[in-house]
Amino acid sequence: MSDTGPSDKNNDNDENNGDTHGSETALSEADENRRQVLYWRLLARMFDHEEQPALEAASVAIVDDLGLPPALLDPAVSVDNLVQRFPGLAAELQGLMAPEDGTDDDPRRRVRRAALVSKLLLNVFSTGTGSVTATQLAGWQQDSGWLKQALGTDGAAELTGVLSTMESDLVSRMRLREVLADPMLARRLTPSMSLIEQLLRDKANLSGVALANAKALIRRYVDEVAEVLRTQVEQTSVGTIDRSVPPKRVFRNLDLKRTIWKNLPNWSAEDERLYVDRLFYRQTAKRTTPARLIVVVDQSGSMVDSMVNCTILASIFAGLPKVDVHLIAYDTRALDLTPWVHDPFEVLLRTKLGGGNDGPVAMAMATPKISDPRNTVMVWISDFYEFDRSQPLFDGIEAVHRSGVKFIPVGSVNSSGHQSVNPWFRQRLKDLGTPVISGHIRKLVFELKNFLA
Question: Half-sphere exposure of residue 214, counting CA atoms within 13 Å on the CB side?
Fold first, then answer.
């Protein structure tokens, strides 16, 4: 018969449970330390491409213990190449960085996740410096695709802008013509303002397949921006109700409430019916005054985004009824782009970015287009940094404003609203009563709509 009582057995179980708990705690702390090593290595490699021997050795040991391939730690090996060699990793990368539901409490699994996340982040965000080859760009595009898959739909959407900016930087560091000459690479490019700027600057040196691909990218970007701007323009109607025009007698214009109210005397209590002897319709005809819109855009190097946005915006307004749009671009020379104002794509292909500012040359071309000052708006988009001809340009602006033309100076037209304007001009335009408006595209749309209403 054993001398061990129930209390002794409980003590033994407590001691065993304590040992197990202690082991789990120690294991958890060890795994957390391993995660930290992997992330410290990631940060070190992000900011310094030279290997840190201690971190590298520790990371190799961790990856080996996890059963992951050593190539996971090699930034020169693309994620795509890694998955080709080890297909089992593809499933792990799907949704890897999506928000966790909190149910994954496996410490070892969290370390494995850290190793895979480190690979994705290092390959995508550590792009180095210097020139970039077409092969490197293609590899980065593939890796960024894997990162998007790891982030999930919502996370990828939030990071789209960042990745587009990075891609633009990589494109700027490579021979763009080499990429454009390869249809597969060209199709993978994401149209952005910086990319469009490079295409416009280099279009004279492109031909054949490269030129066709460049045009396709410009067309894609123009269509995307046009869709956004068209929505903004259409958010408010143009013109006011013209009471002198009889309402069109169609069902969609039927004013049901007014019809009932006006026919109430015809109510029959006996029949419990309302006899309608007259229908009333809403007046929907708009009074629109034929307006002339003259857009003058500085196409010097610092105003590329304005050039792109305003050519698209001008084409949209040109499509409105009874709006006569003229478009002039200038640097040291002025170019009348009015014949192509309905097609911003053609306008951009005819621009020549760069050079300085000579506003009086553009004013000389724009002024003869004013036939009815009170019915004309002139939008002038520039940073107003002139070639020592600030006073002549301001004199021209003042004369146009005094004649009755609505003059709208805009510092820049971009998505961020940031603008840089010559302080000398900014103050004088303010004193003239025509202050430089905010550079956000929505502000310009609002101003133009007010004029046309």
Answer: 26
Closest C-alpha to 388, from 304, 328, 306, 332: 332
Cβ within 8 Å of residue 71, ≥6 positions away: 77, 82, 85
CA–CA separation, 94 vs 195, rounded Å? 30
Q: Edge-to-edge strand order for the sheet containing 406-410?
A: 334-336, 323-330, 291-298, 376-381, 406-410
What count of other Cβ atoms lies within 10 Å of the Cβ of residue 27?
12
Cβ(293)–Cβ(304) below 8 Å: no
CA 139 vs. chain centroid, Å, equals 23
For residue 309, the tally of other CB atoms under 10 A from its CB is 24
* Spans in the chain with pLDDT lower than 50: 1-18, 20-24, 236-238, 287, 415-417
pLDDT number for residue 277: 86
Closest CA to 418 of 308, 312, 300, 306: 306
Q: Is the dihedral of CA 413, 414, 415, 417 positive or negative?
A: negative
Determine the Cα–Cα distance for residues 256 and 301; give it in Å rounded to an integer: 58
Tokens (6 digits) for 168: 């633009």
pTM of the complete model beyond 0.85: no
Residue 432: predicted pLDDT: 92
Contact 420, 382 (CB under 8 A): no
- Of 437, 422, 413, residue with least CA distance to 389: 422
Expressed in angstroms, the distance from the first to the final Cα of the chain is 105
Element housing 163 (H / E): helix 134-172
DSSP E strand stretches across 201-357: 240-241, 267-268, 273-274, 286-287, 291-298, 323-330, 334-336
| Residue 139 vs residues 92, 170, 198: alpha-carbon distances, Å | 20, 12, 21
